[in-house]
Amino acid sequence: MEEETESKVILHGTFMSPYSKRVELALKLKSIPYLFVQEDLQNKSQTLLQHNPVHKKVPVLVHKGKPISESLFIIEYIHETWRNGPKLLPRDPYKRSKVRFWASYIQLHLFDTVMKVVKTEGEKQEKALAEVKEKLSIIEKEGLKEIFSDTDGKPTVTNETMSLVDIVMCTLLSPYKAHEEVLGLKIVDPETVPGVYSWLNAINGTDVVKDLSPPYEQVLEILRSFRQMSLSRS
Ligand SMILES: N[C@@H](CCC(=O)N[C@@H](CS)C(=O)NCC(=O)O)C(=O)O
């Protein structure tokens, strides 16, 4: 019984957090059973604070009683710990470095900029949108050929092949249609970034993403209220 508790996997996260979603995707891809602890970020649990005393943020994965924080490191931990099932990083070191490079590029250069488009209006929003489009064209021109080197740059994503970089892209822009509807803007234009567009649609076509995505109407609601809250604070 004690052994059972010890090997249990617990994820502290929130329903809305894209970072928690990354870890959930990785656990589901690997078919790892886990207990999800929904945190209230206005009133964080003592367990979360103890497990992530540095950043005090979700997600935190607890495995065999030991906590791991930071979504990208958690995914690497999952990849290294549960060796069977789909791989979240390529076996080949060069390809692996490219997947890490582009996951980190999206995290560092695209994530906050997309958030800025959602949270602002007027000139600030226009500037942020131009920046998002510029980063998406860099991914189109330079990223896809490296991420999908096995298929000549053509994005193919299935439950069996989904990697760290697909997961990061997914949790940022898989609901791009909802973003576009709420904001009344084109963000992922199939004319200018056809590869990125088909990448996102391939991601959205996987069973794991379909299973984890809330209904479209709910995504619209979440985005609208997030936007309104951010605009009223600024
Ligand atoms: N770099 C972290 C970011 C995690 C993060 O920003 N989590 C947010 C929720 S989306 C959080 O816990 N915020 C609570 C706070 O800042 O107090 C990761 O990749 O895991």
UniProtKB/TrEMBL annotation:
GO terms for biological process: glutathione metabolic process; toxin catabolic process. It is found in: Cytoplasm, Cytosol. It catalyses: RX + glutathione = an S-substituted glutathione + a halide anion + H(+). Gene3D superfamilies: 1.20.1050.10, Glutaredoxin. Keywords: Coiled coil, Cytoplasm, Detoxification, Transferase. Residues 7-86 form the GST N-terminal domain. Residues 92-226 form the GST C-terminal domain. One of its GO terms (cellular component) is cytosol. PROSITE patterns: GST_CTER (PS50405), GST_NTER (PS50404). Transmembrane segments: none annotated. It is an enzyme of class 2 (transferase). Residues 115-142 form a coiled coil. Belongs to the GST superfamily. Tau family. This is Glutathione S-transferase. The lineage of its organism: Eukaryota, Viridiplantae, Streptophyta, Embryophyta, Tracheophyta.
